[in-house]
UniProtKB/TrEMBL annotation, chain A:
Protein name: Simple sugar transport system ATP-binding protein
Organism: Kaistia hirudinis
Xref: SMART domains: AAA
Annotated ranges, domain ABC transporter: 10-245, 261-496
Family: Belongs to the ABC transporter superfamily.
Organism lineage: Bacteria, Pseudomonadati, Pseudomonadota, Alphaproteobacteria, Hyphomicrobiales
Gene3D superfamilies linked: P-loop containing nucleotide triphosphate hydrolases
Pfam family, any one: ABC_tran
TrEMBL record, chain B:
Membrane topology qualifier: Multi-pass membrane protein
Annotated protein name in UniProt: Ribose/xylose/arabinose/galactoside ABC-type transport system permease subunit
CDD domains named among the record's database cross-references: TM_PBP1_transp_AraH_like
Subcellular location: Cell membrane
Keywords: Cell membrane, Membrane, Transmembrane, Transmembrane helix
Keyword Signal: no
Membrane-spanning parts: 21-41, 115-134, 141-159, 179-199, 229-248, 260-278, 285-302, 308-327
Main subcellular location of this protein, as a coarse class: membrane
Upper taxonomic lineage: Bacteria, Pseudomonadati, Pseudomonadota, Alphaproteobacteria, Hyphomicrobiales
Keyword Membrane attached: yes
Source organism of this protein record: Kaistia hirudinis
GO CC, alphabetical: plasma membrane
Molecular function per GO: transmembrane transporter activity
Length: 500, 336
């Protein structure tokens, strides 16, 4: 790179990518100047992650050219050369579960002499990185024991430790809490000042306005807009993402449900782990209650308890007046609880199976008799679901691991709804889901409410919380505040952070 | 208000004890127990000759266990190792024997060339397995199962099922020699364990093998040449199997058509009892070594005991099951 013409950190010229017969990218052009902070936005399945996989050499394009730092991209197999030019946090988990945190941080990057790893320096460097991120875990812990956020931070820290001058982040914040997002942004800004180029993908548009300078909008495998962000206000951005002929506008305020009468979900005197004691919460039929809190506040464990995944020490959970047996997923499901877990990678998906099979796992008994599944019935149910949820897939037969991240998430929600539960527990249900599809999911939740379902929505995402009829804020295992419908964003954030 | 959860272990100093996980040492008390029982069963059990005998008889098994552990940690399988134990020395013996009336080829290459042929056979078998599994993406289990049947059949076919003996001295040397009063095969197995143990722990390629077995996609993304290393692991595994075949041939001074038969079950048993996960990416050589030692001692104790000969296998199988249960209960993560 000469001082006169800094050139481009990455370029794609007319790249086409096909998976089998399906063309996913139809001739994409993008050029990212050195020092830029570029955002890519687009709806679920637009081809963002696919473009990333071409820019990092995971896949090679069927046509067109990729250039990095002004030079033609390295050969497909030369992973080392790719790694020198670009670092990436992928949308999918890339940790090695049974290696330690330290080794994951320095994966294939271990300080070594003559090929022999110096464990002392591995550990020292890992400790420094963990301290940098204020991540309070031992470097000797095996990575599968990490929580979702911790794992995500390990992945981000690893990419930054690689020392590349071009860094791609594919939805790094989808599973992070606000505090960690802020820390990530501080880090990104510091690196930007040092001249590092960023490519940043997120469905949180406010994040994009916060740390990016320019934006590329993708729709259905094409680039449809390329502009500095200060020339493209939010409405215009969303319009470009969604395309002509689709109403955009912000969500209308929702109809307030009629005075609820029956109690759908009632949690009484719940004790769980060391920090949750005497926890009470009830959700009426036809009501959507938000449970907001930080990671580690206990909100996810309460959702797990209702789903039967966590075993409470004491207390009762009643479903429409009937106390349900605790600590059994099957029993909770039989009692009418549907659950969408927060970490779809770990608990949600059967990656080897088709979209259809993933959608119907909770209702197999309804699709036939004597344990035999009627394929006609299954196909009908599946197609119905794919349509109502707006899942972008070639058919119900497609393997779910081939779907884009956001569409996988929609399938998770679909699965929970398939069993027509009476109580629906959703933990961060719209993570990784694009703005327009979010609306569709909200519509589905509203419809479920209208049918008399009790919805418990566990989240710290203000957008998700805004569809709730009321929000209870949990801090360190206790409900510290409750909000009725019209809360101010500022108050909510303060309450979640414990600053009321 | 920290948003960081507190459910994780506090920082620890990196001591030897913390690096050696409980799982790797769990068999040591069990081995001690077997030794105590053995000393009650028979007064000759604890004699040095008997113990050396146990070690020598386990040496071929332990080399196969090293090979299988490498492959398992890399997230693959190789069932054909036991047939390489037969084919590699058989092919060499056939080429070495110049008398066609006792099953030889009539070519009569010398003993050193014979060793070369045996090792080359291992290399070729490993390369074929590796290419089929990695390049054609065939399932390792079924590919190496087919290879097992094929190689076993070839071993039979070469000599019409005959046993070959009268082999040149250099070819038998490794399996018969004693160094410092201890059979060479024990030295060889011991040194291999040490070398591979250190390699897997301290060499970047060894660490890459763990990464590949744990999450191949993540390993590839991290710049690890997944395909090359996986093929290499198959090749090294088969080379080790050929070496085990040489030692076995030397010890019994002949090559039988069924040489190595059924060894693969004990190889898997020893590796898994020793903490090598069938899911890849987990386990250590030190653990695998304790697995081999336990099996070897058990077999010896059973032979010395008054268990009726026809029941020895059943007892052995039951004890292996028991060992699996015990290690599962004391180990940390389940083999999901
Ligand atoms: N391995 C694959 N095989 C077949 N189709 C695939 C494969 N990977 C991706 N696709 C398809 O390519 C399209 C684009 O997917 P991609 O993951 O790039 O979307 P995305 O823009 O990242 O979406 P999201 O915001 O949901 O992450 C999707 O329709 C997806 O189904
Ligand atoms: Mg994506």
């Amino acid at each position: 790179m000469t001082a006169i013409a800094p050139g481009f950190a990455a370029e794609a010229h007319g790249v086409v990518k096909r998976f089998g017969p399906i063309e996913v990218l139809h001739g994409v052009d993008i050029a990212i100047p050195v020092g830029d902070a570029r955002a890519i936005v687009g709806r679920n399945g637009a081809g963002k992650s696919t473009l990333v996989s071409l820019l990092t050499g995971i896949h090679s394009p069927n046509a067109g050219e990729i250039r990095l730092a002004g030079q033609p991209a390295p050969a497909q197999g030369d992973r080392r050369a790719w790694r020198e030019r670009v670092a990436c946090v992928y949308q999918r988990w890339m940790v090695i579960p049974h290696l330690t945190v330290a080794e994951n941080l320095l994966l294939n990057n271990q300080p070594a002499r003559a090929g022999l790893v110096s464990w002392r320096s591995v550990r020292d460097r890992a400790m420094a990185a963990l301290a940098d991120w204020e991540l309070d875990v031992s470097p000797d812990l095996e990575a599968w024991r990490l929580t979702v956020e911790q794992r995500q931070i390990v992945e981000i820290a690893r990419a930054l430790l690689q020392g590349s001058r071009f860094i791609i982040l594919d939805e790094p914040t989808a599973e992070l809490e606000r505090k960690e997002v802020n820390r990530l942004f501080d880090r990104i800004r510091a690196l930007q000042d040092a001249g590092v180029t960023f490519l940043y993908i997120s469905h949180h548009l406010e994040e994009i306005y916060e740390i990016c300078r320019t934006v590329t909008v993708m729709r259905d495998g094409d680039v449809v807009a390329d502009a500095p962000l200060d020339e493209l206000p939010r409405d215009a951005l969303v319009a470009a993402m969604v395309g002509p002929g689709v109403a955009t506008g912000r969500r209308q305020s929702r109809p307030v449900s009629d005075a609820p009468v029956k109690t759908g979900l009632e949690i009484r005197d719940l004790a769980l782990g060391d920090d949750i004691e005497g926890f009470n919460l009830s959700v009426a039929a036809g009501e959507c209650v938000g449970l907001a809190g930080l990671a580690g506040s206990g909100k996810d464990r309460i959702a797990e308890a209702v789903a039967g995944l966590a075993v409470p020490k004491a207390g009762t959970i009643s479903i429409f007046g009937q106390p349900a047996p605790l600590g059994s997923v099957a029993a909770m499901r039989a009692a009418g609880v549907g659950y969408v877990a927060r970490d779809r990678h770990v608990r949600g998906l059967f990656p080897q199976m088709s979209v259809g099979e993933n959608l119907v796992t909770t209702i197999l008994e309804r699709l036939g008799r004597l344990g035999l599944i009627s394929s006609a019935k299954q196909a009908a149910t599946v197609n119905d679901q794919i349509r109502t949820l707006g899942i972008v897939a070639t058919s119900g037969e497609q393997r779910i691991s081939e779907l884009s991240g956001g569409n996988q998430q929609k399938a998770m929600v679909g699965r929970a709804l398939a069993s027509s539960p009476r109580v629906l527990v959703l933990d961060a249900p719209t993570q990784g889901v694009d703005v327009a599809s979010k609306e569709a999911l909200y519509g589905i939740i509203d419809a479920a409410k209208a049918r008399g379902m009790a919805v418990l929505l566990v989240s710290d995402d203000l957008d998700e919380l805004s569809i709730c009829d009321r929000v209870a804020v949990i801090f360190r295992g206790r409900i510290t505040r409750s909000f009725a419908r019209d809360w101010k964003e500022h108050d909510m954030v303060a309450a979640i952070e414990g600053l009321y | 208000m920290s948003s960081v959860s507190q459910n994780t272990a506090p920082m620890r100093r990196s001591s030897f004890a913390s690096r050696m996980k409980l799982r790797d040492l769990v068999l040591i008390p069990v081995i001690g127990l077997v030794m105590i029982i053995g000393s009650f069963v028979s007064p000759s059990f604890l004699l040095p000759e008997n113990l050396l005998n146990v070690l020598q008889q386990s040496s071929e098994l332990s080399i196969l266990v090293i090979a299988q552990s490498l492959i398992l940690i890399c997230g693959k399988f190789d069932l054909s190792l036991e047939s390489t134990v037969g084919l590699a020395p058989m092919l060499a013996a056939w080429l070495m024997i110049s008398d066609t009336s006792i099953g030889g080829s009539g070519i009569g290459i010398n003993g050193y060339a014979g060793i070369g042929v045996a090792l080359l056979t291992g290399l070729v078998v490993g390369l074929i397995n590796g290419l089929l599994v990695v390049k054609l993406r065939l399932n390792a289990f079924i590919t190496t199962l087919a290879m097992l049947i094929l190689l076993r059949g070839m071993t039979l076919g070469i000599t019409n099922g005959q046993t070959l003996f009268d082999l040149p001295e250099p070819f038998l040397y490794l399996g018969t020699a004693k160094w410092a009063g201890v059979p060479a095969s024990i030295w060889i197995a011991g040194v291999l364990f040490l070398l591979f143990g250190l390699f897997m722990r301290y060499h970047r390629t060894g660490r890459a093998i763990y990464a590949i077995g744990g999450n191949a996609e993540a390993a590839r993304v991290a710049g690890i040449p997944v395909e090359r290393i996986t093929i290499g692991v198959f090749v090294v595994g088969s080379l080790l199997a050929a070496l085990a075949g040489l030692l076995l041939t030397g010890r019994i001074a002949s090559v039988m058509a069924g040489q190595g038969q059924n060894m693969i079950f004990y190889v898997f048993a020893a590796a898994v009892i020793g903490g090598i996960s069938l899911n890849g990416g987990q386990g250590r050589m030190i653990g695998a070594l304790t697995g081999v030692l336990l099996l070897g001692l058990l077999q010896n104790v059973l032979t010395l005991s008054s268990v009726a000969a026809f029941w020895i296998d059943a007892c052995y199988g039951a004890i292996i099951l028991l060992a699996l249960i015990v290690t599962r209960l004391t180990g940390d993560a389940p083999q999901n």
